[in-house]
Amino acid sequence: MDIDSRSFRKALGCFATGVTVVAAKDEQNVPFGVTISSFASVSLDPPLVLFCLGLDATSVESFRKASHFSVNVLRHDQRELSIRFASRMADKWSGVDHHLGETSGAPVLSHCLAVLECKMEKQYVEGDHVLLIGRVLHLDYDPGGQPLLYFRGNYADIA
Ligand SMILES: Cc1cc2nc3c(=O)[nH]c(=O)nc-3n(C[C@H](O)[C@H](O)[C@H](O)COP(=O)(O)O)c2cc1C
Question: Domain 5-153: which CATH class?
Answer without folding.
Answer: mainly beta
